[in-house]
Amino acid sequence: MSDRLEKAFEYVKNTYFPRWDKSRKWKVEECSEELCAIGARGVDGKCESKTKTIKINMTRISKDQNDLYDLLIHEICHCHNLGHGESWQNAMFKRANIARTLGQLELSSLIAKGINHTLILDQWHEHKLQVKIFGHVKECLEKYPEISFTELMVKMVENHWVPETISNKWIKVYKGKYDYIKRRSMSSDCIHGLNPEHCDVCRQKTSPKEVMPQFSTKKDQYRSSPILEVLVNGEPWGKTYPWDEHFRFGVIRVKLILIFIDLIEKFVKTDGKSPDFGKIISRPDGKYNCTCVNSPWFTLPNGQIVNKPYMKLASDGYFDIGFGTEKAKALIEVLNSLKEFVNSEVKF
User: Fold this and answer.
1) What tens digit of pLDDT does each residue of 37-51 get?
2) Tens of pLDDT along 303-317?
3) Could you tell me which residues come within 8 angstroms of residue 158 by beta carbon, excluding any fewer than 6 positions away?
């Protein structure tokens, strides 16, 4: 093992995880050949709880010491947090805050970027899996229109699309696809997988040409804090558009919008195609490191995936805001109101 890796491991443990591994049961190993052989492209690192080993692929690490610190922090956060869920994210954000407190702004930014990048990859893999499942269920129902869900799952196993043992979580996913396709075949839902009122194409075919909405703002209070709400034709957002009842935010989120207003304008002009999907754009602002990410889809609270561009702005995990192209157009139209709101309220 390289001296560089050993020293970096000790530094990260003492600085970022002072209460972890007091008995020193965990170790770090350079396993470049083993990790390069995982998957098509290999992996940077791996946390093995059974052997209490952090494995690092040094061939993927640059000469910048912050890259090595970032990877070690990422893997150590997996020791008690499997996957990239909320507990792992919270552990990572805590270390990003420590780095910022110590004045290590570049490392703090790397950790924050890593969280966003990992979540985007997870969402992309989840999206591809959901699309694959939908295709299999649809194909089976086209062949056997009257098949029951139980019979469908048997067919899935016979076609090797589903393992014989499957968790209740994924059975619910398949059941949801089955019910959705069955309902759609007997209803007026659009061919794009949405309700007609949620689909721009179908809405244009079935509705008279709509008058362009007028956006305005209204100041209000939420838990004694000032907020600004964007209205459509003088009404809350949900009166005109689906998915959200209100479109409102506080001072810090408005500042976040203003930091990335040039990218929001590009997002609108290119109909959501710019910035490039998955590319994380970072901009520091005082005590916060702010990031912008553009995604080709978003997920509704009920789990339904909507294939429309979605921009998400975040500030070190403390505050975030996401929106599609319609909300982005509204933000640009009320830009002056956003600036006045920030200038008139107490800075946080």
Assistant:
1) 886 677 888 999 889
2) 566 778 889 898 876
3) none
